[in-house]
Amino acid sequence: MQHFTELADWLAHCERLHPTSIDMGLERVRTVAGRMGLKFDCPVITVAGTNGKGSTCAMLEAILTEAGYRTGVYTSPHLVHFEERCRVRCEISSAPDLVANFARVESARVANGNEISLTYFEFTTLAILQLLADARLDVAILEVGLGGRLDAVNILDADCAVITSIDLDHMEFLGTTREAIGFEKAGIMRAGRPVVVSDPVPPQSVLDQAARLGADLWRFGQDFNFSGDKLQWSWAGRGRRYAGLAYPALRGANQLVNASGVLAALAALRDRLPVTAQSVRSGLSMVELPGRFQIVPGQPTLVLDVAHNPHSVAALTENLDAMGFYPCTHAVFGAMADKDVGPMLARIGPLVDKWYFTDLPTPRAAAGEALRAAWLAGNRRTDVTATAHPTPQAALDAAVKAANPTDRIVVFGSFYSVGGVLEHGVPRFSAPHLAA
Predict the structure, then answer these.
(1) What is the rounded average pLDDT of the residues 406-425?
(2) CA distance readout (Å), 105 to 128, 176, 283
(3) Cα(324)–Cα(346) distance, rounded to whole angstroms?
(4) Could you report the per-residue pLDDT of 242-290, keeping only the tens digit for each?
(5) Is 41 exposed, middle or buried (0-12, 13-18, 19+ CB in 10 A)?
(6) List of long-range contacts for 342-348, beta carbons under 8 Å, 24+ apart
(7) C-beta atoms surrounding 60 within 10 Å
(8) Which of 77, 172, 367, 389 is the most exposed place for a label (fewest CB within 10 A)?
(9) How far is CA 216 from the centre of its chain?
(10) DSSP assignments along 4-26, one per residue
């Protein structure tokens, strides 16, 4: 059995354990969890979906914290530091706390000479779940990593499941249609327990699975809905209504759909986790989540967004379009090699005047030059330029050098793209032109 004292050493150990980085299935991780005696003594909310999972978890955390509950949250991946994946009472977990739980997973994994191989995600998920289970929480909010049915988080029986928007992503693992992917996401449902589906047009496979299980389905547009104008919005669901709400602090029109699902989940759990209207208002007004249509103060305008599939890039494009006129938009973009980048580049392309494609620090990533070649293959504009760079920060530096104060710079794509910029800190942003 391995004994490490540093988190980085444990993470390196996890990367070496299993022959593949993704191995869908619950048998191995469930066996190790059983050896650990992993068990939650509080309500558990799981959140699956293609896009909107992180925002949904953040809003649930903010509202429930405002209501006085001790919250624990698990999300993935992280932007800069691994510790970001776990928050207890709104505080990012410490490396020593994580190290202690990594050791517990390792002990269970190799117990009695019967060693079980775990992927990086499975191992780290078990460590974080154990940390949260021991934290004396009132509620645990868990983001599903990939799919749902066979994801490591799904070893737990959620008291309430939330399924956000469903679109085509990770098709090599989840299937090539929304129906197939919806079936995988629906795997987090449990018989007789509430499941909130906030996708306005869910795949039929999701609805069919809810009916088969006898889950308590809360469907957007039928069991809950929202309305609003430019100043405020309202929500109505089964036996509950909120009027005159301020817009969530998270930017983007799509956040109202996410917020609606959040309020439905809280309504479904109101007997166990009651919240007041004031907690809802305060939580939504204070919620924060880096890298989700995040606008950094300064000039030129800097937008950070982890949009990395066609559906999320379409939402990003609409949000950018709503920002108004900018003389020039510079785009920094990096992505994994398995992504279908053509539709993403085509969707946002009409808004971009200068591209800065970047390598990313992972073998799974597409090279910046390969992304630039993909863009060239579909580009029909002669007034747009494109260059490739070795790191997200180098790409951003090139964009800053070329930009005027009234321009806009958008960093989007993989978490590595946005994280590579945040890693160096961008608390305030000013182009060199302003120094004169």
Answers:
(1) 92
(2) 10, 34, 34
(3) 20
(4) 999 989 998 877 899 999 999 999 999 999 999 999 999 999 999 998 9
(5) exposed
(6) 342/374, 342/377, 342/378, 343/310, 343/313, 344/307, 344/308, 344/309, 344/310, 344/313, 345/374, 345/375, 345/378, 346/378, 347/310, 347/313, 347/314, 347/317, 348/313, 348/316, 348/317, 348/320, 348/412
(7) 28
(8) 172
(9) 25
(10) -SSHHHHHHHHHHHSSSS----S
Residue type, 132: L
Lowest mean pLDDT, pick from 147-156, 175-184, 215-224, 323-332: 175-184
pLDDT of residue 81: 94
Are residues 384 and 353 in contact, defined by beta-carbon separation less than 8 angstroms?
Answer: yes
Q: Is domain 7-286 classified as CATH 3.40.1190.10?
A: yes
> Rounded to a whole number, what is the distance in angstroms from the first to the last CA of the chain?
60
Cα(335)–Cα(189) distance, integer angstroms: 31
Rounded CA-CA distance 16/9 in Å is 11
Q: Residue 86 has what pLDDT?
A: 97
32-48: pLDDT as tens digits: 999 999 999 999 999 99
pLDDT at 171: 61
Residue 125: the pLDDT is: 97
Q: pTM, whole model, 2 decimals?
A: 0.90
The residue assigned the tokens 């909130």 is 196
Q: What is the mean pLDDT of the chain?
A: 92
- What six digits make up the tokens of 150? 């066979």
Name the segment(s) of the chain with CATH classification 3.90.190.20: 294-431
CATH number, domain 294-431: 3.90.190.20
**pLDDT confidence tier of residue 231, bands split at 50, 70 and 90:** confident
Cα separation, 387 vs 369, whole angstroms:
8
Give CA–CA dist 72/220, Å, rounded: 26
How confident is the model at residue 170, as a pLDDT? Answer: 62
Q: Who contacts 267 (Cβ-Cβ below 8 Å, separation ≥6)? A: 218, 224, 237, 238, 239, 240
Domain with CATH 3.40.1190.10 in the chain: 7-286
The rounded distance, in Å, linking the Cα atoms of 205 and 184 is 9
C-alpha–C-alpha distance, residues 32 and 102, integer Å:
12
What would the pLDDT profile of 144-165 be if each residue is shown by its tens digit? 988 888 999 999 999 999 999 8
